[in-house]
Amino acid sequence: xxxxxxxxxREDYADPRPTRVARYFLGKFVCVEAPDGYAEGMxxxxxxxxxxxxxxxxxxxxxxxxxxEIMFAPGGVxxxxxxxxxxxxxxxxxxxxxxxxxxxxxAVRITAGQELVRRRRRGxxxxxxxxxxxxxxxxxxIGMNHNGHDLSGETIWIEDRGVVPPNREVKRTPRIGVxxxxxxxxxxxxxxxxxx
DNA sequence: CTCTCGATTAGCT
DNA sequence: GCTAATCGAGAGA
Length: 196
What we know:
CATH class: Alpha Beta
CATH topology: 3-methyladenine DNA Glycosylase, Chain A
Mean pLDDT: 97
Order of helices and strands: EHEEEEEHHEEE
Number of helices: 3
Number of strands: 9
Low-confidence stretches: none
Radius of gyration: 16 Å
Helix content: 10-25%
């Protein structure tokens, strides 16, 4: 399944500018081969988290702990963590080694594996299947087992199929749920593709 | 060890 | 609009 486009490789994750990569991932496809089947979705919303100065980032001030360590890896691996004790959130680690940087995938549109996702998201309207960072993981079957996983492997990967959202359809807003970050919470580091 | 709180969601008022 | 759910990371003693 999948592989209908170009699988992103290490160099595609290397951009050291957080907002540039966050914008870049809009229109890319997250593909997941899970024990219960294959599903994929096109990314429609992202947030940038980057650099030791970013007070909203888990790695603020170069804080290296068991959880944040993966953010210091070279771009191209998954950072998955448990939020509010309930929800898993999927990030794409980006940039060079030792500079903690990641892009949070906040929403995708399911483009394959609809029957599987319908089962995983039983009772949920299709438009809400993956509209939110916790929902993305629920729909695509992303779990803590994917944390630290190489994104150019055969389990979870990202494809470029030539979809590039036009600038006029991409909105920038402050990031969600980071009020604790003071002035950094105001930076327009969230990217939303609103297709017309 | 204890305590606090979170890059959210679903369900209810 | 409000809030319970649910638990581990991180900080401090």
